Amino acid sequence: MIRSVVTGTGSALPVRRVSNAELAQQVDTTDEWIVERTGIRFRHIAAPDETTATLAADAARAALATAGVVATDIDLIVLATATPDQTFPASATKVQALLGIPDCVAFDINAVCSGFLYAVQVVDAMLRAGVHKRALVIGAETFSRILDWEDRGTCVLFGDGAGAIVLEAQDSKAEGGRGILATKLHADGRHNDLLYVDGGPSTTGTVGKLRMKGREVFRHAVVNLAAVMEESLVLAGLTSAQVDWVVPHQANARILDATARKLGLPADKVVVTVDQHANTSAASVPLALDVAVRDGRIEPGQIVVLEAMGGGFTWGAAVLRW
């Protein structure tokens, strides 16, 4: 049986780290208000010379080093982002050039905060089909570029960063083998107006700014995330009791807590980095995954569930045996 196995993880954050207290000097808010409602304490903000592509390339280099392979061993790059460097070409091709890969397949996926999960399923299918052998799957964002810094309800929630994994097609035992065991994705475009950017090349000719109706998004997130995690576990032939770690999209600490309760999962099984990174959209899951791998929490043989929901709405989950 061919399975897609994670052989390396990596992440990258902009140099500038912004606390709630610093943010409160320019926005009508307080540290207490932000922490109480979101759990966020810090976020990283990209400098002008730090872009989605440069952050993605840095995260990719870290993942390659962890996997013990060189850039030219990669034959596929899929970058999940809603904040590309340019309208076109794909920022994945800029990552390819930055890594010094002369030829490989490279393209972007935009499913906003669920983008990394969408990218994982696409790459998993391509690897298992035998089309490619080894891939970089990256989530990278510079959401600070599309925030309305006068809207305290949204600008305090987001940060910039990138996370990456190396996925490799390997022969795996049908039972007990490493790799991706199941994935499940969804989308429902009827909810566009609850979380969106009010611009685009075909509509306004501008980049636009992020707009969100927080309460409605919260309600959908808790229901959808719990449901898709259960669906993915059923596909994998597992139960929530067998899950060692959940690595969720880091949107809001209250969403993480509510989703865990709905699934009956103890809080100490949920990887939480939202306090340090804020919401980094498509980067949040691979960023949190890299943190938990590097600090030793995630160990070989454990069952790990990745999950996310974002604008669209899109949402999804993946179950892996590490």
Keywords:
alpha/beta; 322 residues; 4-stranded mixed sheet; 13 strands
Number of E strands = 13
Mean pLDDT: 96
Largest sheet: 5 strands, mixed
Estimate the helix proportion, in percent.
Answer: 25-40%
Number of helices: 10
The proportion of residues in beta strands is 25-35%
Which overall shape is indicated by the principal axes computed on the Cα atoms? globular
Cross-sheet strand order for the largest sheet: 1-7-6-4-5
What string gives the helices and strands in order? EEHHEHEHEHEHEEEEHEHHHEE
Distance linking N and C termini: 16 Å
Describe the structure in your own words.
The protein has 322 residues and is an alpha/beta fold. Helix content is 32%, strand content 26%. It has ten helices and 13 strands. It has helices spanning 20-23, 31-38, 52-67, 91-99, 115-128, 152-155, 214-236, 253-263, 274-277, 284-294; strands at 2-12, 16-19, 42-45, 76-80, 105-109, 134-142, 160-171, 179-187, 195-197, 210-212, 245-248, 303-310, 314-321. The strands form four sheets. A five-stranded mixed beta sheet has the order 1-7-6-4-5, with helices on both faces. Strands 8-13-12-11 form a four-stranded mixed beta sheet, with helices on both faces. Helix 3 (52-67) packs across helix 4 (91-99) and helix 7 packs across helix 8 (253-263). The chain is globular, with a radius of gyration of 18 Å. The two termini are 16 Å apart. The mean pLDDT is 96.
Topology summary:
Elements: E1 2-12, E2 16-19, H1 20-23, H2 31-38, E3 42-45, H3 52-67, E4 76-80, H4 91-99, E5 105-109, H5 115-128, E6 134-142, H6 152-155, E7 160-171, E8 179-187, E9 195-197, E10 210-212, H7 214-236, E11 245-248, H8 253-263, H9 274-277, H10 284-294, E12 303-310, E13 314-321
Parallel strand pairs: 4-5, 4-6, 11-12
Antiparallel strand pairs: 1-7, 2-3, 6-7, 8-13, 9-10, 12-13
Helix pairs in contact: 3-4, 7-8
